[in-house]
Model the fold of this input.
Amino acid sequence: MLLVLPPLGGCAARPASLPLIPAPASVRVVEDSGFVVGRDATIAVTAGATDAGAAMDVADQLARLIGNTRATTPEVLPPGHLDGAAADIVLALDPAALERFGPEGYALEVSGAGVRIQAAEPAGLYYGTQTLRQLLPPRVEYQAALYRDLTLPAVAVEDRPRFGWRGAMLDVARHFFGVADVKRFIDLLALHKLNRLHLHLADDQGWRIEIPGWPRLTEHGGSTQVGGGPGGFYTGEDYTQIVRYAAERFITVVPEIDMPGHTNAALASYAELNCDGEAPPLYTGTRVGFSALCVEKEITYEFVDAVVARLAELTPGPWIHVGGDEVEELTQEQYNAFVERVQEIVHRHGKHMAGWAEISAARMAPTTMIQHWRGSGAGLADAAAGQVILSPATRVYLDIQYHEGSPIGLSWPGLTPLRDAYDWEPSALIPGMPAASIVGIEAPLWTETVGTMADIEFLAFPRLAAVAELAWSPSGALDWEDFRDRLGRHGLRWTALGVNFYRAPEVEWAGW
Ligand code: TNX
Done:
């Protein structure tokens, strides 16, 4: 029998929350008229000398968004401009606010007098502008010069994220995705205040980034993908473009080269990386666990060194991910020794290491990021792992089918309807894991069954919005019914952006 419970407190249905995702830590709807961003709107930046450039970049991006709906883009006034105080939208950088907002938090006020966003660092200003964006009508997202006034509700928001690691992973190895697709994915992460893009750059089916001195990795190892299609790879310049585009949106790229397993593309490209000295054929199926670098050969470490050196050189972010998952071809001793040696190589190139949970069997530095993905994770709590990223396959694997019969996706951990992605408590996931060890949440999108950007969008949305909220919003702000309700309206923004999101039947999707 279905029980219909009266709302808590017995009062009438609560007022609809503003359609903000992730939910801010605090939102107050203010008694005021709201603000109309008019035809001649201006944006001003007030900042000390240090980060004025980054703050101006944030203002420029906001100006371009508002400019979508007009013939001209709003003028951005630099710090020190006399009219700054009179601007319609003020982005105020104030290092003194660090204690209150942290490096990523902000305050946003909209009143009849205008809009003011205050933050200690440019990242906070950026997240403030993403909240402002979600307060603007969804049609602002259309890339057409169509003049209309843009009306904002009067609000006072104070916000800062729960977790510092709010990520998504894209597997560009099983199927290759070019720079334009990755940029679009980055745009969609940024809208939801995610700040890590983990790129899975090599696996059995493909090697996707050029490494100087090892040209066959991409020429041969990058030449195909699952199903036998043509594959592809990034030049150093392509990768740099991705990293830069992400950084402008306050997203750190975490590059992964999976090793010692998941390496058939490399083994097929260089016979000397194989213990028997023979290169296997390229592989375009979807089996896992069958490949491994020859860990007893010195050439293997020269290879790893060249790969890590190149990634370190091209990646401003502090982490290099070395995979480490699903190795069936080595003894535990061989595996541990390999991972420990790779960790030294990563450190020698000035970076911290990240890897899938299996690496925690070896001796790991306290700075190493360990990514939990399956099972109870009990071993991780015992190993007193310093830093753990939560990617439970039963909750946040974006490549898993929503429902029985969903057109794309795998189902090895079960099915993952939207509510399963949202309705769990990160701090309770791994029994015995100290809350301070959890750096955040990351949602991987493996691409065995994913061949197009439309497929990516279908699997990622709406579930990635659920993950973004779980990673950003304080636990007290998490509420499935409220999320569902906000999501139904947030979907209009995705529609305006042309996102091929899954119209999950649990949600009432608003129409135009
Ligand atoms: C497990 S998650 C894998 C990947 C597959 C994925 C498919 C992990 C570390 N390994 O190789 O693509 O499942 O869901």
